[in-house]
Structures are given as C-alpha cells and as structure tokens.
Design brief:
- InterPro entries: LytR/CpsA/Psr_C.
- It comes from Streptomyces althioticus subsp. attaecolombicae.
- This is LytR C-terminal domain-containing protein.
- Keywords: Membrane, Transmembrane, Transmembrane helix.
- The chain is built from 5 helices and 5 strands.
- With about 210 residues, it is of the alpha/beta class.
- The protein has a 5-stranded mixed β-sheet.
C-alpha cells in the first residue's frame, strides 16, 4: 500500500478487541451490591414499622405472661388452726386505780363466749405500771393461737409471752388507757378476718 498509510518493515500491528468484558464484570458486581444494600435497608424499614424484628421476643413475652401463679388453697407451712373463744380461759386483772374494771370486763368477755378464770387486781409486777390499754399475757405456745383471738377483743393491747409459764390460761391486764373492750361488732369482724385470712394476690407481670 502506498501513500501516507504505507506499511514498512517486517512487523505488523496486532489488532485487539476493546477490553469491555472486565468493565462489564465490575459494573455487574457493583449493581448487585447496590441492590443488596437497598434490599436490606428496605427490610429493616419494614421491620421497624411492622414490629417484625420483635416477633421472637414478643412471643417469648406472651408465653411468660400467659402463666400466672394462682394462690394455693392450702399453702405450705400453714399456721395452726385458731382456737375458738369458748376454749380460751382468761384471767382479768386490774392494774389501774379505778375499781370495778376487772369484774365489768370479765362479764363482757363471758358474754362474748370466753371462759373467765380469776378476776382480781394485777400483781405487783404490773400494778399501776401499764400505761396503755392493756397487756395480754400467756405461754409461748399461745403467741400465734390464743393471744391473737383474745387480741380481737382489745385492740391496741400489748401481747407478751412468758416461756416459763405453764398451762394455757391467758391474762388480760387492764391498763390506764383502758376505756372498755373493742365494740362487739368490730371485734366479731376482726375475729372473722383472723379465722379466714384473704389469700395473697396472684403475681402478675406487666405485659
């Protein structure tokens, strides 16, 4: 060939195809990555607005909230049954300077079903030394049995036990602040509540 495009020498230039395949691969990978990131972001948005991400935890919470503890009809370690007033003997002792209180109180206790033992002035240990409404005194075994029953008849009275004391009799020692036994209606209500305590409320979880 002649002219300005004449080829000289014994080597010819090698004709090569444009390197488009590499560019296509790079573009494809980039497109897939962009689509993947976009899809993941869309799923995250859906989970946020629909609460889908908390489905497992919500299911666990519902399962936990679905089980509630019910009060047992006969709880373990139940207290001893309370004695009836007719089985309790009470000695009524007056520790004040006002005369006649012991006999009057003993008569009222008898009307309410209690047995009355000794009616007299309080011994020197308590005489003129009880400032409150009174003291209820009994053996150690009466702490959770007979003493609470007698306590319904004189609200606010101090309860004491004497480990060395023998027998089952109780002492009601009248103090300076004594104005009479608790009103019978209130005493009966307290006695009923004592004999039939309400069960503890079942534990509930806030869901």
């Amino acid at each position: 060939m002649g002219g300005q495009y004449r080829i000289t020498g014994d080597k010819y230039p090698r004709m090569r195809r444009p390197r488009r395949r590499g560019k296509l691969v790079v573009l494809t990978v980039a497109s897939v990555a962009v689509l993947g990131v976009g899809g993941w972001g869309t799923l995250q948005l859906i989970d946020v607005f629909t609460g889908g991400g908390d489905s497992a935890s919500a299911a666990g919470t519902k399962a936990a909230c679905g089980t509630t503890a019910k009060p047992s009809a006969s709880p373990a370690g139940a207290a001893k049954p309370l004695p009836r007033p007719g089985t309790i003997t009470v000695n009524v002792l007056n520790a004040t300077t006002r005369s006649g209180l012991a006999q009057k109180t003993a008569d009222e206790l008898k009307k309410r079903g209690f047995k009355v033992g000794e009616v007299a002035n309080a011994p020197e240990t308590f005489d003129k030394k009880v400032k409150g409404t009174g003291v209820l005194l009994g053996p150690a075994t009466a702490l959770d049995t007979a003493l609470p029953v007698l306590g319904t008849q004189l609200a606010g009275a101090e309860r004491r036990t004497d480990p060395a004391r023998e027998g089952v009799e109780l002492d009601l020692i009248i103090g300076d602040a004594f104005r009479g036994l608790t009103a019978k209606a209130d005493a009966d209500k307290a006695l009923t509540a004592l004999a039939n305590p309400e069960p503890a409320p079942a534990s509930k979880k806030n869901c």
